[in-house]
Amino acid sequence: MSAIPKVYSSNITSYDLLKSFAVIIMVIDHLGYYFFPEELWLRALGRIGFPVWFYLVGHASGRDIPVKLWGGAVILILLDAITGIAILPLNALVTIILIRLLIDPVMTICLKNNAYLWLLSGSLFLLILPTMAITEYGTLGLLTAMFGYMVRHKDEIKKRKGNDNIVFNFMLFAYFSFILMMQLTFNFNIYEFAFMAVGTFFVRIYLYAFFTKENYPNLTQKCGSIITGSLQFMGRNTLEIYVAHIIIFQLFALYFLNLDHLF
Fold first, then answer.
1. I need a labelling partner for 8 at 20 to 30 A (CA). Which of 132, 141, 239, 262 fits?
2. Is residue 91 in a domain?
3. 28 burial via Cβ count (<10 Å: 0-12, 13-18, 19+)
4. How many domains does the chain have?
5. 258: confidence class by pLDDT, cuts 50, 70, 90
């Protein structure tokens, strides 16, 4: 049976805006990684867009793992192998695949009672550094996806838990886990850290209030065809953009600039 094709709105949507923001931040982050490794401001900016990708995995209604996602993950593993770059940690697409497989059973356990939620979350926090050596972001990605899941089911969770603050409190837990691990990873100076921490906090506040499938016909009309088309392209082809720009950046950096820091 063939998959049912997605039907996209002709208008700019909330997903288009959110994913376009994340794509732009991601490309800037990877420019820093591949070409300007000494410029940690670019990496600090890149951290701000991180929550979006894993949040959306947990926030999504479906858990399918399309062939192109598997294919993208394999292509990037092969790219690392061919270019002589260490395969581990496996690329972020592998992390996304694992999260899609794990998120529902993990949340089923977490939602049984508050003790399970915080015990399991604490365990995942302790596993962040070991798992980051295996896949990009490791269980830090899963904690962010759990936040996305909880936002999507916010009303149900508040009703079951009898606690209006539990989703917000979990957001804070995932947020502080993230900025701590990013500081341990990058050793930002005080200004870079403050920029990363504040920017990430505002992004998470936006995600906490995120509404799905909002259409913006007035914005679409005001933006015109070029801007609208650009936002829709970035928002609706994120996987392809991710894989393509990694291939281009990595090959260019290795074979034209011969950057040793990639190895």
1. 141
2. yes
3. middle
4. 1
5. low
